[in-house]
Amino acid sequence: MSTQITAEIPEAADVPPPGAAPAPKARSGHRRLLTRRDRLTLGLMAGLPTILHIALVWVTALASIALAFTTWDGIGFDSIQWVGLQNFRELFEQNPQFWPAVQHNVIWFVVLIVIPTPLGLFLAVQLDKKIRFSRVYQTAFFLPVVMSMAVIGFVWQLIYNPDTGLINSFIGANEPGKYIDWIGDPDLNLWAILIAASWRHAGYMMILYLAGLKGVDPSLREASALDGAGEWQTFKNVIFPTLRPTNTVVLVVTIIEALRAFDLVYVFNGGAEGTELLSILVTSNIIGESSRIGYGSAIAVVLLLISLVVIIPYLVSTFRKERRA
Amino acid sequence: MSTVTVARTPVRPARILLHLFLAGAALAWLAPLLWAVYAAMRPYGETSEKGYVSWPDTLNFDNFTNAYQQSDMTHYFVNTLIIAVPAVLLTLFLSSMVAFYVSRFDFRLNLALLLVFTAGNLLPQQVIITPLYRLYLLIDLPGITMSGKLYDSALGLVLIHVAFQSGFCAFVLSNYMRTLPHELTEAALVDGASVWRMYWQIVLPLCRPAMAALATLLSIWIYNDFFWALVLISTGENMPITSALNNLTGTYFTDPNLVAAGALLTAIPTLIVYFVLQRQFVSGLTLGANKG
Question: Which residue ranges does the record annotate as region Disordered (chain A) (predicted)?
Fold first, then answer.
């Protein structure tokens, strides 16, 4: 790589770049050298992907907002009727599934951030100790992250099935009268699914933290050890504070995962009572028997607003850092 | 320093304890999968008679072959290939172009552009699905897709995958391209190379490591997609394997042993990719995260 660079620099020096300015200004010098054809190429290169992305992601997101204030049966545009806040009123006041769904999404996040996330951090710290077989352990913990949520749902069904599953077979609760219905019982099923979700999440967090720990300056650790700090003190006072960027990413990823949770629940029990989620409610308004476009969009808007509360501050801080860099 | 290493050579009890803990935890982590393998390798007759928690009389791969043949899994794997290969290539192609523009030409728009792409990638899919579903039903493509619409077609799935995933890739690649020395492209420009040549012959080859990592990551993500195909494909026959699994269960996979076999067969390609390209996968995942 370096030979390529040095080979080209002398030629560049023959024709002095406009202004011969330091790096930031030379960048705008890029523009002055562009031919009309180059500008066209650049326009297409940036334009085509942007149009595709905006059309399919942002226009549809905005359309969700617009449709949330209407009713529409989907047949022809004439039948779109403006109904103001009616969809939202109905959603907040009459839908028996809405508030449980919001609650379950919140529980999903809280469980993920309280149990598998610290566990992932703990595993990462242990595996970062230049320990033998580290790769083998990592592979085991990370394996669930590679598999699809759908497959994970099926695998855990084999454990939770009241008749044939591992748990009930093992504790003898698979006979009539003694059933523990891990999948159907509304008091149990959310927690059962969350164990499966945590199983996957811990490995994901472990990898993110391992990458974060690799970036920690080893001399910090040495200095702390020389000062006589114990392992826990070093971690608490030296390592953890330097993991702040990773913690931000972990927090954002966990919130987004909690909002996106869908596949696992859909496969597990179709979002039956006890496991309703906002994503499930939106989807059942499309592929369910009653397709209510405006109403489904209103639920999507709630989901969008919650997401934006997380996404916007995260991106603003990320890009502010970029600009400074 | 040398005294420290000498002191560390004898195995300390703490290390043994740590290994015991990690080995135990790793086994516990693999247990659900091993259980699925165990169930899949036993004949249904035997498990229904003796129960699932029992010592095996026979262990074989019959459930795997039956699950594969009865449900014609090849067909669904081909469906997945038809969707995933173009989607991965197109995503990398388009997002690298955006990244090239954003990282090499300091126009005022670039920060906003990257912001739009990244934010779009973080949205839950359900936020956009209702209008997207309607849009796909509205777009007529007679003669281009089998269904005559964008709905229920591989093309439709490719497009949404590309649109959705290019956000993440553009972000990662633009960060990567920014680390390439500016002299590279400047010199080429002064030499009179076109913008396209700069992108195709200078910048892109240097991005190979990042592209490889992203390609691995994207392949697994797109292979694992369940939601887009569930909503945007109506004909069971047209579904990629991951989404088809849900239909096949109950129709062809009639007992838990077959379900286990079917689910494991579906997971095999991702596991192969993971074991072969583990480093690519992990570095792809953390390329985006490290920058936060």
Answer: 7-30
Nearest to B136 by CA among A60, A53, A68, A295: A60
Three-state secondary structure call for residue B111: helix
How far apart CA A66 and CA A211 sit, in angstroms, is 41
Count: domains in chain B: 1
The 3-state DSSP class for residue A128 equals: coil
Domain that residue A178 falls in: 98-275
Distance CA A257, CA A141 (A): 18
Structure tokens at B2: 């040398």
Residue B36 lies in a domain: no
Q: How confident is the model at residue B251 (pLDDT cuts 50, 70, 90)?
A: confident
Of residues B122, B131, B264, nearest to A64 (C-beta):
B131
Closest to A200 in 3D by CA, of A254, A249, A270, A142: A142
User: In the prediction, which pLDDT does B186 show?
Assistant: 81
b/e B256-273 (16+ beta carbons within 10 angstroms → b):
bbbbbbbbbbbbebbeeb
For residue A81, the 8-state DSSP code is E
The range of the structural domain enclosing residue B182 comes to: 79-243+271-290
Q: Considering only CA atoms, which of B223, B221, B225, B247 is closest in space to residue B234? A: B247
Residue B25 lies in a domain: no
CATH of the domain at B85: 1.10.3720.10
C-alpha dist (Å) from residue B73 to A264, A267, B15, B76:
22, 19, 46, 5
pLDDT digits (tens, 9 = 90+) for A4-16: 332 333 333 333 3
Closest CA–CA distance from residue B34 to any residue of chain A (Å): 10
Alpha-carbon distances of B219 from B92, B227, B289, rounded to whole Å:
11, 16, 19
pLDDT tens track for A203-225: 999 999 998 998 888 888 888 88
pLDDT tens for B155-181 read 999 999 999 999 889 988 988 888 888
Specify if A159 maps to a domain. Answer: yes
Q: Do A56 and B128 touch (CB under 8 A)?
A: yes
Query: Which residue on chain B is closest to A153 by alpha carbon?
Result: B263
ipTM attached to this prediction = 0.88
In a domain, A188, yes or no: yes
**Residue A258, exposed/middle/buried by CB under 10 A (0-12, 13-18, 19+)?**
buried
**Contact call for residues A288 and A270 (beta carbons, < 8 A):** no
> Based on the structure, what is the number of domains in chain A?
1
Mean pLDDT of A106-116: 96
The number of helices, as runs of H, and strands, as runs of E, in chain B is: 16, 0
Nearest CA in chain A to B131: A60
- Residue B17 domain flag: no
User: Do the domain assignments include residue B193?
Assistant: yes
CB contact, 8 Å: B17 with chain A?
no
The per-residue pLDDT for range A154-187, each reduced to its tens digit, is 999 999 998 888 998 888 887 777 888 899 899 9
